[in-house]
Here is the input.
Amino acid sequence: MSRGESRGLKGLVVLKIGGSVITDKTKEMTYRPDVMGRISREVARCWPIPLAVVHGAGSFGHPIAKRFRLNQGYRQQEQLEGFVKTVQSVKALNQMVTEAFIETGVGAVGIPASLLFIAKKNVIETAHLDLIFSALDLGIIPVTCGDVVFDRETRFSILSGDDIVVYLAKALKANRIVFATDVDGVYEFDRTTGRKTLIGRLDYRKHVSLSYGDVEGDDVTGGMFYKVEAAFEAVKAGVKVCIVNGLVEGRIESAIKGEEVHGTVLVS
Ligand code: IPE
Here is the structure.
């Protein structure tokens, strides 16, 4: 096992692996073991950079959450079936992701967000950060995820992995966030020509001027606009942020290592 010595948190990277990368969003509860296996090997090659991982729920979370309207918070008793099924389903995905790291020889411990956070009106209020710190201190990767969590006001709410990443990066004073998505980064669309160009460096003014053209589809947590909006919170706190395509071999590895990589870097 390549991790296992206490290394502190200096240079910590928080990696968000999008649900659209490790699951097939068009088919409910479909995991992509080959993709996750390749990502685990990329992560293994980043040793000894300290790392925390957050993965999305993908087709293990969005469809059930949508069916039971979990993003509205508790309205009626019938939703509880959806709440408990989502907790179970996301836990199963978290287990598979964690297993993939371990099989590659990377020490990892799965801590689903339902056991890590309590929210208040969809915003993280309490976090058992000592669990995360303890794992990192041992040189083990804590692996959490977008999830449904208990909420002090709405009784339960959906926490997106993007919000968790930003929260953790700020709380742990991370050096960098890497968002691995199923596209190369943030694009600019030219309405007249219909051409799209990847934006290498994106500042906040440019971000708010873009028309993202996000189609919400079956997602209950929003698309690229919301991700970038949340990520600028971390940029403001001094964290470096980049968005790369996690489906293309080598990009996650380069981004974690801080190398020049095809993607979008957020700048202040
Ligand atoms: C969504 O988490 C959580 C649930 C729907 C339960 P994310 O927003 O992080 O998931 P992806 O990355 O879009 O799949």
User: Anything to note?
Assistant: The pocket of IPE is lined by residues 18-20, 56-58, 61-62, 65, 86, 90, 146-148, 158, 160-162, 219-221 (CB under 6 Å).
